[in-house]
Amino acid sequence: MSNNNIQIFDTTLRDGEQVPGCKLNTEQKLVIAEQLDELGVDIIEAGFPVSSPGDFKSVEEISKIVKNATVCGLTRSVQNDIKVAAEALKYAARPRIHTGIGTSNSHIVHKFKTTQEDILERAFAAVKYAKSFVEDVEFYAEDAGRTDNEYLARVCEVAIKAGATVLNIPDTTGYCLPSEYGAKIKYLKENVKGIEKAILSCHCHNDLGLATANSIEGVINGARQIECTINGIGERAGNTALEEVVMVLKQHPYLNLDTNINTSMLYGMSQLVSDSMGIYTQPNKAIVGSNAFAHSSGIHQDGVIKNRETYEIIDPKDVGVTESAIVLTARSGRAALAYRAKNVGYELTKLQLDEVYADFLNFADKKKEINDSDIHQIIEGSKVYQQIISA
Ligand code: KIV
Ligand code: ZN
Fold first, then answer.
1. Nearest alpha carbon to residue 222 among 196, 253, 248
2. Which residues of 287-316 are buried (b: 16+ CB within 10 A; e: fewer)?
3. Which of the 8 DSSP states describes residue 46?
4. 3-state helix, strand, coil in the chain (%, to 5)
5. How does pLDDT run across 132-162, given as a tens digit for each residue?
6. Other beta carbons less than 10 A from residue 135's beta carbon
7. Which of 72, 101, 142 to mutate to test the pocket of ligand 1 (most atoms within 8 A of CB)?
8. Which of 10, 74, 76, 200 supports an S-S bond with 41, CB 3.0-4.6 Å?
9. Of 138, 213, 221, 119, nearest to 171 (Cα)?
């Protein structure tokens, strides 16, 4: 792995699956895991094995079929969780245990009703115990986003001393501003003793719509792993969307940060997860929404027909979408109508287009979107139809 390679840690099957009402069965999880492996993700978080027999089985079965990616299981800082995760991962070619504990005052005081020193001891013991089963141990400092940086650095040092290979810095509540999250990663890079022995990971939630921006700030400031889900699904407002961070890095090559993702699979992957989970993807969702490459206003359509790059920063084929769409509505102009008419077999002169366009606007005012059969109907009903077909 080069120092500029960002590891993509997919948690669709763990954090993503925590969406209310969206349980997947083992069969569905296996299909998704196989596709994630093909997509090129570096780590698949397959589940939380101690949470249920079903989750244990899924992690075990996924471990058997994944060929390239590391397979990871989540635990709390509890010995039995760690033992059960190690058991579920025993068939994985590259197993990772992901253990951790809450580190913010809110978690220490209200959830654990304990002290900062006790949390340090529990963190050390959990990583040490996980290391007795696997070499690759990731430690998460839950609610790191709201944890004081000095204390967070002490937690990271303890985890590294116990053998952690990855330090996950979750913005569990999606609270941080991008500048704040980036500064946190920079602080840890500069102040944690032994940081060169581990990589820092971004795990950002989307409560304020900042998960993608925060993850990008994290890697700009030295993190080398991003934890994310397909379509950004997950608890509450969700996690960082995999397709977004991957395309941000691809579209900004001067950042000199890349991933191993085969981006032409992104749209298909999004559809697979959306269909399996029964979670509809909003039409305006970046990269994979149905409108992400659709143009409907006359000014934009005219530009895109002349040159796609006037209003598109991504070639739709790069993410697995066949082509940009020119959508005909009452906001469309002559250029779009001529383009779509040509696609269904009518080459219109300027005068013919003026005539048909007036009929089109009347039609479009009554109907939201004009499809190919509407175009035939409009042209066949126009005064210039005979002229058009005899040309
Ligand atoms: O958001 C979070 O803090 C988590 C941890 C369990 C990694 O999902
Ligand atoms: Zn999370």
1. 196
2. bbeeebbbbbebebbbbbbeebeebbebeb
3. E
4. 50, 15, 35
5. 999 999 999 999 999 999 999 999 999 999 9
6. 12
7. 142
8. 10
9. 213
Gap between the Cα atoms of 33 and 272, Å rounded: 11
Distance between CA atoms of residues 211 and 203, nearest Å: 8
CB 141 within 8 A of CB 168: yes
Q: Model-level pTM? A: 0.96
Going from the first residue of the chain to its last (391 residues), give the mean pLDDT of each consecutive group of 10, the final group possibly shorter.
90 94 90 98 98 97 98 98 98 98 97 98 98 98 98 98 98 98 98 98 98 98 98 97 98 98 98 96 97 96 96 98 96 97 97 97 94 97 94 74
Q: Ligand 1: which residues within 6 Å by Cβ? A: 15, 140, 142, 168, 170, 172, 203, 205
Q: Residue 347 and residue 190: Cα distance in Å, rounded?
A: 65
H or E element that contains 167:
strand 166-171
Question: Among candidates 196, 153, 168, 33, which has minimal Cα distance to 97?
Answer: 168
β-bridge partners, 137 = 97
Residue nearest to atom 6 of ligand 1 (CA): 142
**Identity at 220, one-letter amino acid code:** I
CB-based contacts of 95: which residues, under 8 Å, 6+ apart? 63, 70, 71, 72, 73, 86, 89, 134, 136
Structure tokens at 38: 């093909």
